[in-house]
Amino acid sequence: MELSVVQWVVVLFVFTFVIGILAPIGGVGGGVLFVPLAAAFFPFSIDFVRGAGLIMALTSSLSSTPYLIRKGLSNLKIMIPAVVVSNITAIIGSIAGLWVTNTFPTGESYIIIALGGILLVIFVFMLASRQIEFPQIKKIDTLSQRLKLDGRWYEPSSKEIYEYATTNLPLGLLMFSLVGFVAGMFGLGAGWASVPVLNLVMGAPIKVAVATSMAIITVNTSSASWVYLAKGAILPLICIPSIMGMSIGARVGAKLAAAAKPLIIKYLVMFIMLLAAVLDIVKGIHGLHVL
Amino acid sequence: MKHEEPVDSMGVTFSKVTRICTLVGLLIMILFGLLYLFGLNPYMDINSVAKHWGKPAYKFWYDIKGNDVNNYSWFLSHLSKMDSLSMIGIFFLSLTPLVSVLFIIPHAKKIYKILLLILAFELIFSIIKPIIL
Fold first, then answer.
1. Do B5 and A154 touch (CB under 8 A)?
2. I need a surface site. Which of A11, B61, B87, B92 has the fewest CB within 10 A?
3. Chain-wide mean pLDDT for chain A?
């Protein structure tokens, strides 16, 4: 059945609205569901899907970061060294991603297969990852000491002020360089990768890790988005309904989160991600004409 | 009583600038984007876009406008068109982190001033790279 343009726009809006509801309850960013599912089910080129994914990640992180900074949760002292490194690799990733689709006749299929692979990695991350509310830090490395990567915030649930410090900055920076590349190449915010780096490697409390990851996403997606803007890979016809659907859905999702059973939604999101990964890999292989 | 830990001047400035720029960018993007979706004065005809949106970006532009796109002139040169104006909103949103970084440099301590200058240079490079290379 052929859909008209208006019907596609409505379907895209409803699709992103549902993602917007599920993502915050499931504990993932919207882009990580939007990019692989849109690549599998919508008729858009992967270039435009990644472009829309980046702008969605950019707008949602820009909207939440100011609030998180004012609450003392998003730490600019941790964000700045991380983005100095990941910003460069995000630009390289975005150039590489568009180069592959524009240079090789079957480049789009390679990207879709790689996207499916990344999604399988995220699935394993979600299955195996543990989050530590307050990691214990035994020793702070020299670089973290010099940069004074510490902070404090008031936690209303316990009515206490929590102080923290972070460590392992050199290893963290190395990992952020990989995170930046993946974010730029696939049009993802990549909070699923930066939160564990901040929490498990650098020892930031989980709330600080999630909030600081949002600030990191603003810079990484911004620098990657220029490459997509200059290549004409961002189309208002795809971006506008997607961003509106996601934003409205996220507001509904945030309200439902209090009443919903997060574990069931998390498993549902994980199942959707696994399904999208398999569909992307099958679609990519099909595009290579090897099946 | 509502208790909040005081945030340093770097955080306050970053937060304020980001909030204002994001609001302006979102308003421009959504307002003109909606007018475009309703078919008002488009640069790219909606049906034509839908006919070619399955092609990689470079092929898409060859097919709908007859040339490849390698910089920002495809929307900056058509500012009377609703889709181009909506792209200005996206342009503004992408510019927001750089503007915020530039605003906090005077509030940062020495080592962070250096890191922020490097970051600002990287962000400026990512913007001008399509024009100069």
1. yes
2. A11
3. 89
